[in-house]
Amino acid sequence: MERSQMTGVLIMAGAVLQMMLFLWAAARRSYMAVALPVMATLAAVSALAFWIGWTMFTTESELEEEFEEEEAVP
């Protein structure tokens, strides 16, 4: 696994952990009037972070493409 893929996995894990911790904390208190808008914003930011992490994780390496091109040239 390359460094960018590992960074993507860490971003995804951080986004999921952040959302789980917030949901756990929101369930323990009765501040739902404040927590619901904050939760919606946090969910959007976490989803964006997860998407960025997923994109980084699934992106193929440019080095592999360059290596394949060098092998193809006679």
Overview of the molecule:
With 74 residues, this protein is mostly helical. It has one domain (3-72). 86% of the residues lie in helices and 0% in strands. The chain has three helices and no strands. The protein has helices at 3-28, 32-58, 62-72. α1 runs antiparallel to α2. The longest helix is centred in the middle third of the chain and has 27 residues, at 32-58. The two termini are 30 Å apart. The model has no long low-confidence stretch (mean pLDDT 80).
Compact description:
The chain is an all-alpha fold. It contains three helices and no strands. The protein has one domain.
Name the overall outline.
rod-shaped
Series of secondary-structure elements, N-terminal to C-terminal:
HHH
Q: What proportion of the residues form beta strands (DSSP E)?
A: under 5%
**Low-pLDDT ranges:** none
The number of distinct structural domains comes to 1
Keywords:
74 residues, mainly alpha, 86% helix
Task: Please write out the topology.
Blueprint: H1 3-28, H2 32-58, H3 62-72
Helix pairs in contact: 1-2
